[in-house]
Design a protein that fits this description.
The complex is a heterodimer. By secondary structure, chain A is mainly alpha-helical. Chain A has two domains: 58 residues, no CATH class; 203 residues, MetI-like (MetI-like fold, Orthogonal Bundle), CATH 1.10.3720. Chain A has twelve helices and no strands. In chain A, helix 3 packs across helix 12, helix 5 crosses helix 7 and helix 9 runs antiparallel to helix 12. Chain A starts with 8 loop residues before the first helix and ends in a 5-residue tail after the last helix. Chain B contains 19 helices and two strands. In chain B, strands 1-2 form a two-stranded antiparallel sheet. Chain B has three domains: 35 residues; 103 residues, no CATH class; 221 residues, MetI-like (MetI-like fold, Orthogonal Bundle), CATH 1.10.3720. In chain B, helix 10 runs antiparallel to helix 11, helix 14 crosses helix 16 and helix 15 runs antiparallel to helix 16. The chains are: A mainly alpha, B mainly alpha. At the A-B interface, helix 1, helix 4, helix 5, helix 6 and helix 7 of A face helix 1, helix 10, helix 11, helix 12 and helix 14 of B.
Chain lengths: 284, 415
């Protein structure tokens, strides 16, 4: 953003103020995440930058909190990770299938009451989680699914589908329906056409929706707080419990692992988005 | 009007054949949406309906004191009721005592009128000594309050199956003895404060997010791709990172011995022994929520700004507009759809926020959703939690409706 040479001085000043402001906002967005990384390698028991750490003395750093996270006797992280992965896996599959199929129907121009149905299908994303959690808890308690994995998975499917519906319908807006008609005219049945023609073309949207659904489930606290028993504890629940008691370095270690994971997910989501834009011929 | 019909290849009139194809396509679309629609209906819409139902449902006590309420129905509420009411009460209480379930009605009746707690407890304790017949006299002998009409009026007031008393409680009001709606005592008016605080926080967080997001969205939209992609990571990484991770990083930053306080002390703005409280109050809620919701403002703004051609601003300048005037007259009006989308989205998310205020907000920074959680998990007043939830839901749905009208729900962009 170099300014042309003839720019008057007062515009230059405004321009640099603008750039500085932007820089500060980006710092505000990203810096808090990086506070956690060094603290998770703290050799001491406090959530505090010790003088040894600031002096970059190797003695100030250690992996003890990671050891504690994995091997700590009283730590529930093992069970929590297992539960989180199981729940997120099934919830992702459920939301992806239901959401993709619904998006196919919604994108058809023959769909009646499209706007109203879409508004309903997206609503779990908009309604505050505390309300969804309350309502779903009453329901699950009534049908005997409270404190079960099934109950949590079903509610996470609900929370994940809006993302899949949004991403897949977005992919379908650029979809050329003549290719499916071409397949049909060549004698392919609808299922075959879907599997061989439509699905590969909308795959980037489906996968990015699935990523959203996975993160939503993996990250979700409020509904699980209402539904979970001791057996169903998840990583976010354990973090919630830990944070309510006190900040511990072990939580910093877990948080660091989660940041690494979200970075990986971000990278794959970005790659998918670009691939999808390339496939659909959108050039920006 | 006679017209020669056009026939399709198999001899059916074309119009009919087209209609048939149309119907088939329609059915296909509906069938594709149906599984998710039904799933949502059963596990989501129906439970929310059930929640509304619970918020007005007052049948628990009606089921527990059936005979009393049946007898008290005909009482005019003036002089003491006759023997049948006391007789019903005796039988109901006896039944409840045998099943050891009278605890539930104590809380319910005490809510109607304080003083019922000791009244019921004492009566139940002495119930074994009651003799057949003349219950009215025996009741009044056990506790003189049974002879005071206001307690019996309160009992009669608890009789209807449905009640919107929980909604009144949610706005700091209640029924008095004569069923008039009045404000609760001054020192008990907490929900009005909570609602105002929730709206306040949501409003200011939305405004802060807007002020911070507008310039950076503009920068992202105007920079060359290779730089903007890099900077976009700063927006997307927090967006993808766990909410609890982001909240815990704010807890680290804002704690009394944390880096921000260190900085304040180092700058000499506060003495070391007198570090300001940045967390467990409304400041913590503000700062953390602004950072957490900022990406939801940047993404819609960015996607709108991306579509604005830079030649428009150049045209404005070439026609003699200063940068400020060109901005105000050309660029800003074009970004209004993005502003609307971002502000409504952030406001909707902020108004129902729970986790962050619960962790960094403390008592003075907690919002209405924290109160719902409290009544769900601690006080176990589920009907009241449902009523608060319903009130919040109505507000959110109203904004959602506006959002849908203004932005169109299918225009939500993710990432």
């Amino acid at each position: 953003m170099a300014l042309p040479n003839h720019t008057p001085l007062n515009y230059r000043i405004w321009h640099y103020i603008y750039l500085t402001f932007c820089g500060l906002v980006f710092f505000f967005l990203i810096a808090p995440l990086f506070v956690i990384l060094p603290l998770s390698f703290n050799a001491e028991q406090y959530i505090h930058f010790s003088s040894k750490m600031l002096a970059l003395d190797p003695e100030g750093f250690s992996l003890r909190w990671y050891e504690d996270m994995i091997y700590g006797t009283k730590n529930p992280w093992g069970l929590a990770t297992k539960n989180s992965l199981i729940i997120a896996f099934f919830a992702t599959i459920g939301s992806t299938i239901l959401g993709t199929v619904a998006a196919l129907g919604l994108s058809s121009r023959h769909m009646p009451y499209k706007a109203a149905v879409m508004a309903l299908l997206i609503s779990p994303m908009i309604v505050p989680l505390i309300i969804s959690g309350t309502a779903i808890f009453f329901f699950m308690a009534k049908v005997g699914l409270a404190a079960t994995h099934t109950g949590i998975i079903l509610s996470h499917i609900i929370l994940g589908t809006p993302f899949v519906v949004i991403t897949v319908t977005a992919t379908l807006t650029g979809f050329d329906h003549s290719v499916t008609r071409a397949a049909a005219s060549l004698g392919s049945n609808p299922v075959n056409t879907f599997m061989k023609i439509t699905l590969p073309l909308i795959m980037p949207g489906v996968i990015s929706g699935a990523l959203f659904a996975f993160v939503t489930s993996f990250d979700e606290v409020v509904v699980v707080l209402f539904l979970a028993g001791l057996e169903n504890t998840t990583i976010p629940i354990q973090m919630w419990v830990g944070l309510r008691e006190q900040l511990s370095p072990t939580i910093m270690a877990v948080a660091t692992c989660l940041i690494v994971m979200s970075t990986l997910i971000l990278v794959s989501a970005e790659l998918l988005r670009r691939r999808s834009e390339r496939l659909r011929g959108i050039n920006r | 009007m006679s017209k020669e019909q056009i026939l399709s290849s198999d001899g059916i009139p074309l119009e009919q054949s087209l209609k048939k194809a149309e119907r088939k396509n329609k059915l296909k679309a509906v069938l594709l949406v149906a599984p998710l629609f039904l799933f949502l209906l059963i596990i989501y819409v129906f439970p929310i309906g059930d929640m509304l139902f619970r918020s007005v449902d007052d049948r628990m006590i009606t089921k527990m004191l059936p005979k009393t309420f049946k007898a008290i129905e005909n009482w005019d509420g003036q002089n003491l009721p006759d023997e049948t009411v006391y007789n019903g009460l005796y039988e109901d209480l006896k039944f409840l005592k045998e099943n050891k379930t009278y605890g539930k009605i104590i809380a319910r009746l005490n809510y109607e009128k304080s003083g019922f707690s000791s009244l019921i407890k004492k009566t139940v304790r002495k119930l074994n000594k009651f003799e057949e017949g003349n219950y009215k006299e025996q009741f009044i002998k056990v506790h003189k309050r049974w002879g005071q009409p206001e307690y019996l009026v309160a009992l009669k007031n608890a009789a209807p199956n449905w009640s919107y008393a929980k909604y009144l409680k949610g706005i700091d009001m209640r029924f008095d003895q004569d069923r008039n709606i009045v404000l609760v005592e001054e020192d008990r008016r907490i929900y009005k404060i909570l609602w105002i605080r929730t709206l306040n926080v949501a409003f200011w967080v939305t405004l802060f997010c807007f002020i911070l997001a507008y310039p950076i969205s503009h920068l992202l939209a105007t920079l060359p791709m290779k730089y903007s992609n890099l900077l976009m990571i700063c927006v997307l990484l927090p967006f993808w990172t766990s909410l609890l991770v982001r909240t815990s990083s704010w807890m680290v930053l804002l704690q009394q011995q944390g880096p921000i306080n260190d900085l304040i002390v180092w700058l000499g703005l506060a003495a070391d022994e007198n570090r300001p409280e940045l967390m467990y109050n409304v400041i913590g809620t503000f700062v953390a929520m602004t950072q957490i919701l900022l990406p939801f403002m940047v993404l819609p703004l960015y996607s709108v700004m991306k579509t604005i051609s830079p030649s428009l601003m150049r045209a404005g300048k070439s026609l003699g507009g200063t940068p400020l005037i060109s901005f105000l007259k050309i660029y800003f009006p074009l970004t209004i759809p993005g502003i609307g989308a971002g502000c409504l989205l952030v406001f909707i998310l902020a108004i129902g926020y729970y986790i962050t205020p619960a962790l960094v907000g403390g008592a003075s920074g907690s919002l209405i959703s924290n109160s719902i959680a409290y009544h769900m998990k601690s006080s176990l007043d589920w009907a009241f939690a449902s009523a608060l939830g319903t009130m919040l839901l109505v507000g959110v749905l109203a904004i959602y409706w506006v959002y849908n009208k203004l932005v169109g729900i299918d225009n939500i962009k993710l990432g």
